[in-house]
Amino acid sequence: MSSYAKIYLHIVFSTKRREPLINPDWESRLYSVIGGTLRTVKCTLLAGNGTEDHVHLLISMARDISTSDAVRNIKTDSSKWVHDTFPSSSEFKWQDGYAAFSVSHSQLDAVRRYIANQKEHHKKTSFQDELRQLLRLHDIEFDERYLWD
Question: What is the CATH number of the domain that holds 110?
Answer without folding.
Answer: 3.30.70.1290
